[in-house]
Amino acid sequence: MTARDLNGAARNELKTLSKDNAEQVARHLAMAARLIDEDPALAHEHALAASRSAGRIAVVRETVAITAYAVGDFALALRELRTFRRISGRDDQIALMVDSERGVGRPDRALEVGRAVDRASLPTEVRVELAIAMSGARLDLGEPERALQELDIPELDPDTAYPWSPGLFAARAAVLEELGRDDEAAQWQQRADVAAAAIGEIDADSETIEIDEIDEIDEIETDEPAEIETDEPADDEASGQEDGPEERA
Question: Which residues lie below 8 Å from residue 8, measured CB to CB, with a gap of 6+?
């Protein structure tokens, strides 16, 4: 593992460090990124090691926050996310902040944090992640109808697979199940599964995707959405029209 295994944007943030220190910190960050899914505890140890040598670097504090969240230390994740936000001036991890507030048992505070952000200024994927986190906070408060409304955003397109679609569709399925609308929940979970398969095929650089629920998708570029079809036709409820407009954009 070398500093070259860390992505270029992150390496650029380490240029204020000495060469040897930057190399060591980069290696720890690269290991954290590699291990986060298979061994989050070890990934967290690498993030903490990086922070001991470069605690004033935004990407380091961000990595500590992400790994702390992964191991369930939501209080630490919140502290690190606030520091990351202060250092970087960015709201890239706002959804993780909302979820961390939920993790420490403060769903009301989670909603306040989410509402305080200018959602129009967020990248699309971050807006979607925030909608999912806000929906979860509504569920924590026992407000499933409002949780469903949180997910009624323009990005909820049942016929197209974007990178954020599987998570968004699955979140909607979970809320519908909570509401006892099991048939609709099953449809949205199917859409989530199909979208995940489609995205996986795109990531594999496939030009044509053939899945049971997908007839054919030709010449798909990795940054373009995939058209998807499920066994069940989309209805008015699936398009989100029954729940009223959502303020999120």
Answer: none
